[in-house]
Fold:
Amino acid sequence: MGSKTVSPPGTKVTGDYIEEVMLSVKAKNSSEPEFHQAVQEVLESLRLVLAKHPEYREARILERVVEPERVIMFRVPWFDDQGKVQVNRGFRIEMNSAIGPYKGGLRFHPSVNLGILKFLAFEQVFKNSLTTLSMGGGKGGSDFDPKGKSDNEVMRFCQSFMTELWRHIGPDTDVPAGDIGVGGREIGFLFGQYKRLANEFSGVLTGKGLGWGGSLIRPEATGYGCVYFAAEMLKTRKESLEGKRCLVSGSGNVAQYTVEKLLDLGAKPVTLSDSSGFIYDPEGISREKLGWVLEWKNVKRGRISAYTKQFRKAVFTATDLAKDSNPLWSVEADCAFPSATQNEINAQDAKTLIKNGVKLVAEGANMPSTLSATKMFLDAKILYGPAKAANAGGVATSGLEMAQNSARLSWTREEVDDRLHKIMTAIHDTCYVTAERYGTAGNLVNGANIGGFLKVANAMLDQGLV
Structure:
C-alpha cells in the first residue's frame, strides 16, 4: 500500500494532509517502525474517505485516533526457581474506547516493546470495529519469555504482572485476552490474582477455562475465523477450499486450528513452522498428524522439527537468518495462511507466492505482510484478506465470551461456532461492499480499513472532544 491512491475526479485531494499526519506520527513515535507501518497502511486507504468527509479532518479525527488514550508501562519483579530476582517490563496500551471497553490480547515474548504493542493496539481498534460487537481497542504484554520456565515461575511472573495491571482493567473498562505466549495456563494465573486483588469474580479476562467462565470455540476461533473468511473470499470467484493445497506458517494456537478447519472444508494443509524452521509434508497434515502436533506443541512444548521423526515423508528446513526470504513460501500451493508473526512475508516472498500461482492469502497473524508485499498482492489481483479482517475471529469470540459472562450463561459449541461463522461472513461482506462503494472493488485492505474506521470516527464525532 506504499503508493498513493488517486481520488475520484472532482473531489478534494487530501494527499498533503495524510503526509502531514504521517510525518507527525513518525516524529512523535521514533524507533517504532511497526507502528509507523500500521498507521501508514490505514492512512493510505483513508485518502478515499477524507475526500468525501471533510468533517473528519475538521475534528482532527486522524490526529486523535493515532494517539493512545492511555499508555501504562511498569516493572514486573519476580523470583525464579533458584530464588533469584528477575525483572521484566509490563505494558498496556489503551488505544481507543469510542465504541466499547478496551479489548485486546496480552503478549509475553522477548520481542515485546512499546512500538510493537502500539501497532497491535492500533490494528485492534479497527479489527474490533469490524466484528459488529461493542469493543474498543487495546493491547498489552511483557518482554517475559514463558518458554523454558516452570509452571511456578510462570505463576509468580503472572501474579506480579497482574498486581500492577489489575487497577487499570475491569469488565466495563478494559478486558485483556491471550496472545503469543499467553495461553490457558497464563490466563488462569492472571485471573486468579485479579480475583484475589479486586475481590470480585467478573468477566475481566477472556480465554478463561470452560469451568470458570470461558467460552467454547475460543481457542479455535482465530484459526477457524480465518478459514471462514478465506471461504467467503473464494465464493466471490465461485470457488471453494475443497482440494486446495494450503501453506500454513506457525504451529501455535492460530496455525493449529487453521489446519483443523481447512481439513473440515476439504483442503490439504502441507506446512507448519516455528522459530527453528518449517516442516513440509507432501502427503498433507491429516487429523491424526494434527493431533500429534497439538500434544507436542501444547503439552510437551517441543519444536516442530520433531514432526519429521514421527512422520518420515515430511521434510524439515531450518531457519536461516542470513536469507532475505522465507523458504516456506516457496512451496507450491493454492492458498497461503500466514499465522506466525508480523512481517513474515516480505516482497521477495510475495513475488515467489505470486509466481507459483497462489490464488489466496488470508492473514491469521497480525500484520504478517510488509507494505510492499501487500501492494504486490493487490496489484496481482489475488484474493487477499488483511489481518484486521481475516483474523478477527479470535476477538469476536472473546466478545461472545464477554456477552456470556455478562448474562451468566454458557452457549453450546455449535451456537458459538455458528455465531463466529456469521460474524466472519458479515466482516467479509462489510469489506467487500465498502471497497466497491469507495471505487476500489476487490481491494479488501481498503474495505477493512475504511469499514473499521467509519464506525470509530462517527462515534468519536458523537462523543465530542475527548
The chain has three domains: 1-66+442-466, 70-201, 221-390.
